[in-house]
């Protein structure tokens, strides 16, 4: 499944993932950028039309929820990024991430352990 969001859609989805089902006013209040109620409603309806969000009836309004898991969206975004900017090479992406960041010793140890675990799984 190829999942893609605009920046606003990603912001709204992040709120749904972090805070759970929410009415439009709750999403609007949690956004960093001040957006009109109707703009937030339009974004939520767009996400619903794409199949990324859904809603339940609540009184006269709707309570919107994430219809896809955050991890699935992350994987899709990473595949897209890797394909578009790193010629499909996860090694090139990883090399860029590691060389471009100032990683602590603890972060380096965790990455090393993750790579060792991945290598062990492939050889099993």
From TrEMBL:
GO MF term set: DNA binding
Keyword match DNA-binding: yes
Protein name: BlaI/MecI/CopY family transcriptional regulator
GO biological process, one term: negative regulation of DNA-templated transcription
Organism: Massilia glaciei
Keyword DNA-binding set for record: yes
Entry keywords, A to Z: DNA-binding, Transcription, Transcription regulation
UniProt-listed SUPFAM superfamilies: Winged helix' DNA-binding domain
Record family assignment: Belongs to the BlaI transcriptional regulatory family.
Domain of life: Bacteria
């Amino acid at each position: 499944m190829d999942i893609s969001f605009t920046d606003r859609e990603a912001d709204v989805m992040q709120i749904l993932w972090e805070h759970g089902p929410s009415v439009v006013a709750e999403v609007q209040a949690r956004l960093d950028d001040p957006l009109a109620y109707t703009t937030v409603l339009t974004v939520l309806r767009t996400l619903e039309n794409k199949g990324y969000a859904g809603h339940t009836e609540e009184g006269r309004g709707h309570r919107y929820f994430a219809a896809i898991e955050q991890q699935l969206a992350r994987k899709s975004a990473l595949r897209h990024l890797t394909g578009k900017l790193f010629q499909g090479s996860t090694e090139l992406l990883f090399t860029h991430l590691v060389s471009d960041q100032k990683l602590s010793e603890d972060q380096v140890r965790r990455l090393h352990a993750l790579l060792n675990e991945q290598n062990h799984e492939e050889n099993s």
